[in-house]
Amino acid sequence: MRSIYIAFLMLVIFSISPAVQAIDTIVYPWDYDEERFKEHTYYLALLKLALENSKEEFGEYQLEKSEQPMYQGRALVEIKYNRNLSVTWTMTSKQREQELSAIRIPILRGLGGYRIFLIKQGKQEKFSQVKSAKQLKKLFAGQGRDWPDSAVLVDNDYRLITGPGHSTLFNMLQFGRFDYMPRALHEPWNEVEMFEGLQVESSLALHYPSPYYFFVSFDNPKLKSRIEKGLINAEKDGSFKRLFDSHPVTKSMLAAAQLEKRKIFKLKNAFMSQETQQVVEKFSLFNFPKGKVINKGDKTIY
User: What pLDDT does residue 214 have?
Assistant: First the structure.
């Protein structure tokens, strides 16, 4: 009888152990300036939404912050070699999609390609006088050294000065090392409150196709499938759009940016993969706002 009881206990233990083992531990990155920059809270909320919307198929999960803070370039290396991180979020490029496994669903819902500028306070008139791309190209932009935006700007003949990270770049702008810093639509509003002497430029914008994706390692196909499935489910049930429309980081960015009142300079992005070009053409979840596009002769999506 005792041997039967032990055998029964072993059967119970082995029958429940797969459920325990099925919990996915997912490690995400954080930045040195996390307490000041709030943009990551939207991406993290969307990641949680995707994981929740895939629980039925993939089971429970546990989200953990990485042990050490890291700049974007370091996070991408960690993902590439499948160590210390499980997932990150960033603008895509052909090189990044060759080194990392991209989940090709635009997490900014088609609006990731717009850039408006941070400038020094009192310099608005300089930008109000800009009527052409040729004039804007005489000024210096500032961007991160390892950001795909930097390559796009240089390839379109914009003058560029680079720095290692956000805080350094904002300090450089404060001291006049460059004239403007292009930012995604959801980014500059919190930043002007953090750094004295800066303002959001009000008359110009850039646009180049540049979706933001979640990225995982090629060695982690299960996580890719899980996040992809969760995002698709969230789009189907409307929770993706509800989050975008209600989250503090993204809910007011279109109204605040007032793209319809800006001159929009259209740039080419020669650093997209063929797959992402197809995403740009076929996976736009928003109708793009109509601004005053002044680059004559360019194919436009407005």
Answer: 98
Average pLDDT on 259-279 reads: 95
pLDDT of residue 7: 47
Percent helix / strand / coil, the chain, rounded to 5 = 40, 20, 40
Nearest CA-CA partner of 231 in 69, 28, 89, 21: 89
Return the bridge partners of 140, or none.
Answer: 159
Taking the C-alpha atoms of residue 269 and residue 93, their distance in angstroms, rounded to an integer, is 9
| Site of tokens 């706002």 | 289
Q: Which domains does the chain have, with CATH numbers?
A: 2-108+211-252+272-279 (3.40.190.10)
- In the block, tokens 């969307």 appear at 46
Strand bridging mode 212-216 / 87-91: antiparallel
Hey, which of 27-36, 66-75, 88-97, 285-294 has the most confident mean pLDDT? 88-97
Residue found under tokens 């930045």 = 31
| Neighbour count for residue 173 (Cβ, 10 Å) | 24
Nearest to 91 by CA among 155, 43, 52, 30: 43
Least confident of 12-16, 109-113, 168-172, 216-220: 12-16
Q: Across the chain, what does the average pLDDT equal? A: 87
Which amino acid, 141? A
Assess whether pLDDT exceeds 80 at residue 256: yes
How far is Cα 134 from Cα 270, in angstroms, rounded to an integer?
Answer: 20
Q: In three state form, how does the secondary structure of 67-111 look?
A: CCCCCHHHHHHHHHCCCCCCEEEEECCHHHHHHCEEECCCCCCCC
